[in-house]
Known about the structure:
Layout: H1 3-23, E1 25-27, E2 32-38, E3 45-46, E4 56-58, E5 64-70, E6 74-78, E7 84-87, E8 93-104, H2 109-116, H3 120-140, H4 145-149, H5 151-169, E9 174-186, H6 188-280, H7 282-296, H8 317-326
Antiparallel strand pairs: 1-4, 2-3, 2-5, 6-8, 7-8, 8-9
Amino acid sequence: MKPLGILLLVAILVAGFILFGFSAYRSTDSTEVGVRTIKWLGKRGVEDRVYEPGAAYLVLPIVNDWSTFDTRLQVLEMKGNDQLTFKTKDGNDIFLDVTFSYRIDRTKAPYIRQYVAKNDAELREKVFKTVARSRTRDFFGELSTEEFTKTEDRNSAVERAKVGLQAILDDYGIVLERVAVMDYRFDPDYLKVITEKKVAEAKTLEIRAQIEAQREGNKKMLNEADGQVRSLMAAAVGRYSNTVSAADAYFDQKKALSVAVLTEGTNTSQAIIKQREAMASAGGETQIQLAFATNLIGKRIIMIPSGNAVNLQSLDLNKFLDSVLKR
């Protein structure tokens, strides 16, 4: 071989070794882990070793494959054409925008490479997205339409979905960090029904409020009327009591007066009875004569005889009185 040919061959070999040396190094980013798959020379298959982030490693080409997986938190949004559609247990369609946050378990990177996916894109699209879409529908589909509209019931379904999904994703080396409902929409026809129902409920609440206000107004009026009735009754009772008291006092006064009159009359009648009894006795005639004589004491008696001639005669008063008393 000519010297020029030898030099060319040496140059080719040196260049080949240099290129081979550079191509034999594989690196990981600061958030990546590496996985080596042995194709030739040794135990074939995925090596059970995690190549740490931010480093370079000698991995011979041709006889090895090299894969990396991102350990950062991944966010998957299902909305728009990718929105989640499901039926509630009472048969209504709901269109749901959901956001999932997940990451890989870095210690399981070799397992993921061997049994789950070759790279992040395949893990995201073929594994996580498929599982999340199918199973999340099941958990939200356990709710009725009315329950779904209640925040508490909806959040409860979110938590059940997170727990249920994690139980499945554990087998794929994936850690589910968060499930969040961003927005939801109803079927237009059903949305119209809901709107009409809400309007009716609002009207019902308004009418109930008016009825309650009227009821309270009636109570107030009743209380006021009751107060007026009680006041009138108290005034009537007061007047009645005063009238009864005045009548009782007048009655007592007249009763006392009648008793006094009766007593006085009784006493007078008793005195007359006693006086008559006294007069009817033997000394009664004497007492009458004495009283009559006493009344005539000091009296001037003039007797004028009848007729034309005046006949003055002497009058024995004692005899006259005696004759009068004997009649």
